[in-house]
Specification:
By secondary structure, the protein is an alpha/beta fold. The chain has helices at about 5-15, 40-50, 60-65, 70-80, 100-110, 125-130, 150-155, 165-175, 195-200, 220-225, 240, 250-270; strands spanning about 15-20, 55-60, 85-95, 115-120, 140-145, 180-185, 205-210, 230-235. The protein has an eight-stranded parallel barrel with strand order 1-2-3-4-5-6-7-8, surrounded by four helices. Bound molecules: orotidine-5'-monophosphate.
């Protein structure tokens, strides 16, 4: 999917919500466990209930890999079930020496037709560029993550001017790909840094996970992170998909997604 199609969808749905499909067999309602593929049965109902309120889905690959071959099967079925106009993110956090990254890119962009993949920048340019060789596919590079451990490395000063490592990741990687193929991950728990990030990456889309279960504020993220195209995909996983653990789980997920979408429509009204 290209940037224009993504922006159009945001305007049409008045939403920049990404629903995280972090589907865990120990957390889904027990009545689904008798289904042949409980993970897909759960995802299918979640997608049916939330598709009108979101512009992206982000299956976290770990939750599928953890189940072995049947997990990959559930993932493939889920990807095929997602409506074509909705942006898909393989949250795989890959990145390796060039020829290995090329294999990861083939796995997620060719074998599976994801629109984008999350990539870790630690191994540098040649670990990222193999993912950028696919038309209308995106790399979402980890910049400033939402977790506590983000302070271990990402805030380290890398020069005498006090540039933080995450800022260097953003400025250096901008020469590897265009704003049509490169996004950055910035955790919602880091909203106070979004203004600084917008100063060095005004036009890039940002994937912002961490509202909901991790306590990030949608209001702050929107205030400091939006650009003229919106430029945000805000993810919530557990806050939506586990809104209820009972038989009404899909309805509850739909309501949770709708609540976020309605708040987003207000913020979008201020810029679009
Ligand atoms: O790349 C990510 O999506 C990601 C980056 C980050 O900094 N923090 C973060 O939580 N995530 C992912 O976003 C999702 C957040 O899930 P919830 O906390 O349940 O909404 C999980 O799939 C995380 O792996």
């Amino acid at each position: 999917m290209n940037k224009q199609a993504l922006v159009e969808q945001i305007k049409k749905k008045q939403s920049y919500l990404c629903v995280g499909l972090d589907t865990d067999l120990t957390k889904i309602p027990t009545h689904l466990l008798k289904e042949e593929d409980p993970v897909f049965a759960f995802n299918k109902q979640i997608i049916d209930a939330t598709a009108e309120y979101c512009v992206a889905y982000k299956p976290n690959i770990a939750f599928y890999e953890a189940m072995g071959p049947r997990g990959w099967d559930s993932l493939q079925k889920t990807l095929e079930y997602i409506p074509k106009e909705i942006f898909t993110i393989a949250d795989a956090k890959r990145g390796d020496i060039g020829n290995t990254s090329k294999m990861y890119a083939q796995a997620f962009f060719e074998q599976m037709d994801f629109d984008s993949i999350t990539v870790a920048p630690y191994m540098g340019e040649d670990s990222v560029t193999p993912f950028l060789e696919f038309e209308n596919k995106w790399v979402i590079l980890l910049a400033l993550t939402s977790n506590k451990g983000s302070s271990d490395f990402q805030h380290l000063r890398v020069d005498s001017e006090g540039t933080a490592l995450f800022e260097r990741v953003i400025t250096t990687s901008q020469s590897w790909g265009s704003t049509e193929q490169l996004m950055y991950v910035v955790g919602a728990t880091q909203a106070q840094k979004l203004q600084e990030i917008r100063a060095i990456a005004p036009d890039h889309f940002l994937l912002v996970p961490g509202v909901g279960a991790q306590g990030g504020s949608l209001e702050e993220v929107s205030k400091y992170g939006m650009n003229k195209d919106c430029g945000l995909l805000v993810n919530s996983s557990r806050g939506i998909i586990y809104a209820s653990a009972k038989e009404d789980f899909a309805e509850a997920a739909g309501k949770a997604a709708q609540t976020l979408q309605q708040e987003m429509a207000v913020y979008l009204g201020e810029i679009l």
